[in-house]
Specification:
Length: about 325
């Protein structure tokens, strides 16, 4: 009996930039992500259902839905002329700064590949092909960058050396550090948050940003918390995006006082993240950050760094 061409994939959420690593560094977060089911069909592509966080905000038009776009991109890249029926379960908020569009794109592409048989023992899923297909979805909502896609695919900490051609470096995370994520009820669209950033930097700012990014990658690979404290310092996006997030300065200071190695804006925001040595400190940071938001409703999450990326479920 022939296997029905349907599969479900999960892709974790992520922290893009990780402070100074704008469009370069990304860190996968355990316990939260998007789940996408793709069924291959000879009929028209459609979105069957969307559930979960902000489900009412997710486009039902498949030409505007990132999961459907990514799934179709993977199929067409492999000369598969079938279409898709897509079901999405959102575990990540829309415009939350946790890589929601990237996770849906990755899960859509991965589920399409699995439904087409690429997860079988004779034809393994090629991750660079997933990244390329997911980029087609992500580009429709936030531009051609893969700093959320990369950790969502691979897990852990990733460094994007190049988008064209795709060149991703996986960085081994030495210590079992934890992260605290606090997402205030504030809507910030990625394209808007990118538009306020300058196209150029003074030489001194660029040098410091490059030094901080390099040092931060080394700190994670060595498990050097003191170096994280010095290197998790964003001179480019954070100062310009901070005014979009109420009480950001107080929230960041609260996390640092609670014991965080460092704290900054996750992606375009409004999520604020803190890196901590263990679960207990991360929970203290979460509570302190929530209190500093002064009564604004917030989504809260504390977890380890995700060691696994996207997979069939």
């Amino acid at each position: 009996m022939m296997r029905k061409p349907i599969a479900t994939a999960f892709a974790p959420g992520s922290i893009a930039n990780l402070g100074p690593g704008f469009d370069v560094l990304g860190l996968a977060v355990d316990g939260i992500g998007d789940r996408v089911t793709v069924e291959l069909t000879d009929r028209e592509t459609r979105i069957a259902d969307v559930t979960g966080l902000d489900s009412d905000l997710i486009p039902r038009d498949p030409k505007r839905n990132v999961a459907a776009i990514a799934a179709m991109a993977w199929l067409r890249a492999h000369d598969d002329l079938r279409n898709v029926i897509v079901t999405i379960d959102k575990g990540l908020p829309m415009s939350g700064g946790l890589g929601g569009s990237a996770a849906s794109s990755v899960a859509g592409a991965w589920a399409a590949a699995a439904a087409a048989g690429a997860d079988s023992g004779t034809a393994n899923i090629v991750t660079d092909e997933i990244v390329a297909a997911a980029l087609e979805g992500e580009a429709t909502v936030s531009g051609r960058h893969i700093d959320n896609i990369a950790p969502s695919v691979f897990g852990g900490l990733t460094l994007v050396r190049s988008v064209d051609p795709i060149d991703i470096v996986r960085i081994e995370v030495h210590s079992p550090w934890w992260v605290a994520l606090v997402t205030p009820n504030v809507r910030i669209e990625t394209k808007s948050a990118r538009s306020i950033l300058p196209d150029t930097l003074r030489r001194s700012e660029w040098i410091q940003q490059m030094a901080n990014t390099s040092a931060l990658a080394i700190a994670f690979s060595r498990g050097d918390g003191d170096l994280v404290r010095r290197a998790l310092d964003d001179r480019f996006a954070e100062p310009r995006r901070a005014p979009l997030i109420p009480h950001f300065g107080e929230v960041k200071n609260a996390a640092l006082r609670a014991g965080a190695f460092g704290c900054s804006i996750s992606g375009s925001g409004p999520t604020v993240f803190a890196v901590a040595c263990d679960a207990e400190v991360a929970q203290r940071c979460r509570d302190a950050m929530q209190q500093a938001f002064r009564g604004i409703d917030c989504l809260l999450h504390v977890s380890a760094i995700a060691t696994r990326g996207a997979r069939v479920v």
